[in-house]
Queue: 2 jobs
Job 1
Amino acid sequence: MQAIITRNFRDVDTTSPKVLLTNILNDDGSLFRDHCWVEITREVEGLIPRSNKGRLIRFSAKFKQYKNYLTGEKKQTLKKIRTI
């Protein structure tokens, strides 16, 4: 997979802060998601750009299904990002 990692954060005052990935593509080049918030792990933290300019990364990850609490729609997100 590949995505653009940004310097946009969420849940920074919690035990599991997240960073924004955009334009997430599967290995075949098809769009997986237009954006996704992923937990900041040690591996991910070292890739966060120091400026507001995004950075292209390639990685492998597991998929996690969840239900949107507003719409009830089932979606997928990423977890356990590795092999960056």
Job 2
Amino acid sequence: MTVYRTYKGGRLDLQHYKGKSIVNYEFTVTCPEGLVYFDDYVQIELRMFQKLHGTSVFTTLLDVSSPADVLLWNQDKESMDLLQKPYYHECVGVYASGEEDILFHGVSLIL
């Protein structure tokens, strides 16, 4: 289990192995006032793109864990069978109104 700490809206670069499952990646998102709690969002998505503002590769839902400020990412190995190159990711909190907050973003390097 890997724990990443990031600031709301901040950049967080990641590295992944080609064709390997992702199991319980933990993300703790904070802001200057303290921890960010995810109760206001109807869902939290991790979106992977070929490049910044590029074609979508996949979107997956993240689970909120206990404590309530931790996100868990699980992804099957078939989805991670990507080319060995950099991709761009965004973690987005979606409100019931359809508005979105970017929780973090960055480059995902496939090794």
